[in-house]
Amino acid sequence: MDALGRGVIVLPGQEAPDGWAAAARVAIDDTVMRDPAGVADVLHAHWACRQPVVVEVGVDADELRAAEVETAAPYSLAPGFEFARERLYFVARSNNYDSRSGRLVWGPAIEARRLGAGESAEGDVVLPDGRVAWCDGGPRAGSIDVPDGHVLVHRVRLDEGSLEPDRAAPPGGALAPD
Known about the structure:
Blueprint: E1 7-10, E2 24-28, H1 30-34, H2 37-49, E3 53-57, H3 61-65, H4 84-93, E4 96-98, H5 107-114, E5 125-126, E6 132-136, E7 150-154, H6 155-159
Parallel strand pairs: 1-3, 1-4, 2-3, 6-7
Antiparallel strand pairs: 5-6
């Protein structure tokens, strides 16, 4: 479903799967790992706008996902302090299929099945109550139109151990004049 804006992770030199040939390609290599903020910004923009991207991961996955540590007192850090590599890891994988093995793997659907959902030919999974669901890895802001009768389960819900679908928020009212 194109509205979800999913990308794909590949190995260096690996051809992008069908559907991603025209997508921007962003590499994560040893140079990026030494200063990840710039590439994290690029991938964050793709994630936030739901623009498909091909992420070429040329570093060890354990190095990419390793926790960062800062020993300085929190009050001594600049307001813009961040763990840039952890943000890079998040935006590199949260709304992207993994194709490094040669087949597309959608992590949120794997998690949904672990929680009790079933296989689906129409969406990502079928919920235990029979509804077809799409497992969303993109930003939570805005709304995604899904086919009639289908629902959207956000990865945040999956991380919480829930298969509860998101609900569309009703249109907001006018703000108070003050």
